[in-house]
Amino acid sequence: MYHRPIQSDDAPLLARIYADPRAMRWLSADGLPLSDAAIQQIVATNVTRWQTLGYGTWLFFDDADVFVGYAGLKPTAIGGAGSIELLYGVVPDFWRQGVATNMVTTVLQHADTSLTLPRLVGYTLMTNIASQQVLVRHGFVYQGEVTHADLPHYWYARA
Q1: What pLDDT, on the 0 to 100 scale, is given for residue 150?
Q2: Which domain holds residue 108?
Q3: What pLDDT band is residue 37 in, cutting at 50, 70 and 90?
Q4: What mean pLDDT do residues 108-119 have?
Q5: Which of 35, 120, 122, 149 could form a disulfide with 158 if both were Cys (CB 3.0 to 4.6 A apart)?
Q6: Which residues contact 58 (CB under 8 A, 6 or more apart)?
Q7: Which CATH number covers residue 77?
Q8: What is the pLDDT of residue 31?
Q9: Looking at the domain assignment, is residue 129 inside a domain?
Q10: CA–CA distances in Å: residue 138 to residues 120, 132, 156
């Protein structure tokens, strides 16, 4: 598996997640796929984040150059001032294959060796057991409940 920072023409790749109802069940408040315009806005925001902060979202590809998911870092208010969210999403066809674990490992290695970040946090829907397990496996500790996107989530902080 390899990765690269998100680029301005990556909306069609991200649509494999954001336009798929199976994935959006876990990623959006209403569970509905995002519009092309909304996906393009996500791409633009992430490209800007790389330019202004020096970190952001990476796209990950398998050895056959197939897009399998994204993972990265972004500022968040959850966890207090200066907190940085670990985020990730996997193309549904690649669920339960260790992709999220591998992507998160890569992002955290980069954060540990190349960045100075005050606090890493992650949050998931209360029903997303698989995502919770990914966070715990990577040293995140349960902190409590929080409302995000008008839905109850569990949030974790890296120990």
Answers
A1: 82
A2: 2-121
A3: very high
A4: 90
A5: 120
A6: 3, 4, 5, 6, 70, 71, 72, 103, 106, 107
A7: 3.40.630.30
A8: 79
A9: no
A10: 11, 10, 11
Tokens of 8: 């301005």
Q: Quick count: other Cβ atoms within 10 Å of Cβ 123?
A: 27
Residue type, 20: D
- Give the pLDDT band of residue 51 (cuts 50, 70, 90): very high
Sign of CA dihedral 31, 33, 38, 44: positive
- Is residue 138 included in any domain, yes or no? no
What's the mean pLDDT when you consider all of the chain? 93
Is 80 exceeded by the pLDDT of residue 29?
no
pLDDT (average), residues 44-72? 96
Residue 15 has pLDDT above 80, yes or no: yes
- Ramachandran quadrant class, 35 (left: phi over 0; alpha: psi -120 to 50; beta: rest): beta
Token pair listed for 76:
């968040």
**Is residue 47 situated within a structural domain?**
yes
The Cα 115–Cα 129 span in angstroms is 29
Q: Mind giving me the DSSP string for 54-70?
A: S--EEEEE-TTS-EEEE
User: How would you classify the pairing of strands 119-125 and 83-90?
Assistant: parallel
Q: Please tell me the pTM assigned to this model.
A: 0.93
On whether the CB atoms of residues 17 and 34 are closer than 8 A, the answer is no
